Amino acid sequence: MSSAPSARILETKLSPPAFAATQVLRDAICERIAASAVKLVLVRAPAGFGKTTTMAQSRERIEARGIATAWITLDRADNDVSRFLAGLGEAVLRLGVEEPRARTPFDAVAALAAHDAPFVLFLDDFEGVQEPAVIGLVREIVEHLPRGGKLVIGSRGLPDLGVGRLRARGQLEEIDTDRLRFSLEETGAFFGLRPHAGDAAAQALPHELLAQLHRKTEGWIAAIWLASMALERHGSATGFVERFSGSDRAVADYLAEDVLAHQPAEVREFLLRTSILRQLDASVCQALNPRADSAAILERLAAANLFLTPVNGGADGDGAWRYHSLFADFLRAQLAREMPGEIARLHLAASGWYESQQRPVPAIDHAIEGGDHPHALTLLDSYAGRFLEQGRMRMLARWFSAIPEHQLREHPALQPIALWATCFTHGPWQAMQQLESSGCLDSPTPAVRASAQTLIPLLLAMQDRHDEAYEAGRLSLARLPTGLPFADSVLLNAMAHILAVRGDQHEAQRLLDAARRQQGSSTFNRMYTESLAGLFDLQEGRLRQATARFRMAVDATHAVSYNHSHGNAWAGVLYAGSVYESNQLLQAEHLLNVYLPLARDVGLPDHMILSHAMRSRIAFHAGDIDAAFQALTELEYLGHQRQLPRVVAGAKLERSRMLLLQGNGPAARDELARADDPALWAREKLQRLPAHELDYLTLARARWEIAFGDARAALDSIDAELHAALAVARLRRVLKLRLLRALALQRAGSLAEAIAEAAEVLKTASHEGYMRLILDEGPAAALLVQRFAHALHDSATARGSSDPILGEYVQRLLQAAGPMALPDGGEPENADAAGPDGLAASEPLTRKEIRVLQLLAEGYSNGAMAEKLFVSDSTVRTHLRNINMKLDAKSRTQAVAIARRLGVIR
């Protein structure tokens, strides 16, 4: 019974409003939207300016030209990533994208980016979306739209979609309030289209009064519409237009109340009672209006275009509608004034109807919104455990935060669930405070007490207090089994992680196996277990197996089975990391748009470091240096705010690496000095922390010595670290250290040894598909790979055979390295020395060319430089050609090296 209402509500989201006879055609705006060759059309204005109508008319015009379109009306529920992606996936299929075969994951964002036929996607009521993860997904859609794709967004405010950048690139068309205002001619046309216009509106409103009304409303369509309704009753001779003021919201309230007061009693009561609903259909409206014929009233209101917008209406009355938000706000306020005692009952009736349709989520929503917390708790008694097992933590946290604590205490079985939800959405600090004040640890109910005790080790570990977590966890393990499968499995998983951090891999694996046996049907614990198993695989160098586990973990908490963008931040960040490692940067960025905000909210130290460092590296690779530094600044701020020194140090280490790649040795060294917290790194040396498997102070110092200091001296440090890593089978770390060893040998001039060392690294890496582990070391690593490729070719020629897997892998590395690799295979030192014979350029460099060189040295791409300098890409290319000619340089790298030698840039 529950599937049909869900499908109908989804259909309302995917259908634009139906055409009404009273609509004024907005030809000029519609043509501008249809003809614009941009990525994004933003239709932005306050409520009541006809955004939705204009977009719907534009859609009809675009479809008439044979271009596929899809429509999504957003609401607050779309702040849930799963809900948003479900609607997006359905809309994408309507654009003509082939539906995936059974069991095949369907990534709607990627499908849009790859779609080769022209299309336009409309997103209406965007202001209702506040969740950073959802906004990030839409930003990604905009960034990666194919040539024939266009996004049209209707919003009351300015969405955080990088519109400044799009505007600078000429990829944004803005339809703002001024453009949407009715002109005087359109106001007159509107009055001419009103019902009975011949005797009440148009004839009774002389041109001067029409002009006066238009001037006072300033073209605000909602106010004009409401005024026209009032004029149908009062007539123009009453002085209504002279008294009318349309400059603020109070006018809308006054007019709406004036109109509402003249509706038939049953219609008026219907409007007020159903104002609590986000979506309307005859069945749910009937539950709130048992004495009325709700289907007939809905059809009547739809036919009169009064107060609500038909979305999927039909003659059989089985349609669905939604109130325009402006009028819904007014109606709810009016309901509170006139029938304050009815609000709770109406919400309870709605809750009961949804409950009868086996839809507990809106049932609980309405119970809470109506202030009927006891009924909400009764429903939660039945469903909260199931939602917990499914990993729907954010929804549970939202509900529990709205329920008074003293009422929650009357349902002791729900208290631990509320704690779990807080832990995995708002982080361990808030959950610990909540635990201490809840009384759960001293609860007379054994199950509540046991569940609370199993939570403590996890909270301590999430706060980076692993030693305390271990001691607390040992006590909790001694109490198992508690008879609480979810809590027991979480404890086993948490202790497996804690023991792995302490280096006891054998015992950690034993507990992980026990957790897998204990988890039962809990999708959340399945996610947790597979995430940890993937981490163990990754430490031992098994990237392919780790990636499969992380993907399985993300899948475990999907609300929608065909897209790998849901799940918990715990698994999502790790999966993004494995995707990043395989050099699928667009997909990694897509995953980070979803999971980085969640990781930030939860506050897991390793996940915060990993996700922000990844975002910074992706931005740096794209040439967006400002965004790269911004990600690290945010990470450092979070570390200070939450008193996590390791997070602060992680930001400084990554900033040092970026400065090193920019060639700024002194600044990179200063960042390392600021990251030097002896106590912190002494603890890290005894632990296995995911964020520091490849990035820790000793390794970072060796990297700096290789680039700017004594490469031979760096070899001693690297060899000591290599010996320690091999002793405990940290094979991924071994791979990174051997790569740095090869780079040190290369820098020291021992090329044969460097190529031999690189050969071992690349052979191992080729079997597992490691890419970024090598590429993230920059041009020096690219040069090393290039040298190995030459040696491999020479060896294969001499033997008459080659390793096809290794050869193909090396070519992929070189292709991905791109301009980092020197085309002639020469030494970076030689490039530094290369240049004109004298110490001056053949022609003086202009100030603009020097600025281009500075940006080039900092790692900016052509497109990023164009945006920074407010010029076109072709202008940047012209500057680069002139620079190469004046400096007698053959590549970007050589130009920077010569400019530094000449003192033109630092």
Compact description:
The chain has 906 residues and is mainly alpha-helical. Mean pLDDT is 85; it is low at 1-6, 196-203, 313-317, 559-567 and 819-839.
Separate helix tally: 50
Radius of gyration: 32 Å
Total beta strand runs: 8
Shape: globular
Share in β-strands: under 5%
The CATH topology annotation of the domain at 25-180 reads as Rossmann fold
**CATH architecture group name of the domain at 25-180:** 3-Layer(aba) Sandwich
End-to-end Cα distance? 70 Å
* SS-derived structural category: mainly alpha
Low-confidence parts: 1-6, 196-203, 313-317, 559-567, 819-839
Estimate the helix proportion, in percent: 55-70%
Average pLDDT score:
85
Give me the side-by-side strand order of the main sheet. 2-3-4-1-5
Biggest sheet record: 5 strands, parallel
Map the helices and strands:
Layout: H1 3-13, H2 27-35, E1 40-44, H3 51-64, E2 68-73, H4 81-94, H5 108-114, E3 119-124, H6 132-143, E4 149-155, H7 163-168, E5 172-175, H8 177-180, H9 184-193, H10 197-201, H11 207-217, H12 221-234, H13 240-243, H14 249-260, H15 265-274, E6 280-281, H16 282-288, H17 294-303, E7 308-310, E8 320-323, H18 325-338, H19 342-356, H20 360-369, H21 373-390, H22 393-401, H23 405-408, H24 414-426, H25 428-438, H26 446-462, H27 466-477, H28 485-501, H29 505-518, H30 523-539, H31 543-556, H32 569-581, H33 585-602, H34 605-621, H35 625-641, H36 645-661, H37 665-674, H38 678-685, H39 697-708, H40 711-727, H41 731-747, H42 751-768, H43 772-775, H44 779-799, H45 804-817, H46 828-833, H47 847-857, H48 862-869, H49 873-887, H50 892-902
Parallel strand pairs: 1-4, 1-5, 2-3, 3-4
Antiparallel strand pairs: 6-8, 7-8
Helix pairs in contact: 2-3, 4-5, 6-33, 12-14, 14-18, 16-19, 19-20, 20-21, 21-24, 22-24, 24-25, 24-26, 25-26, 26-27, 26-28, 27-28, 28-29, 28-30, 29-30, 30-31, 31-32, 32-33, 32-34, 33-34, 34-35, 34-36, 35-36, 36-37, 36-39, 37-39, 39-40, 39-41, 40-41, 41-42, 42-44, 42-45, 44-45, 47-49, 47-50, 48-49, ...
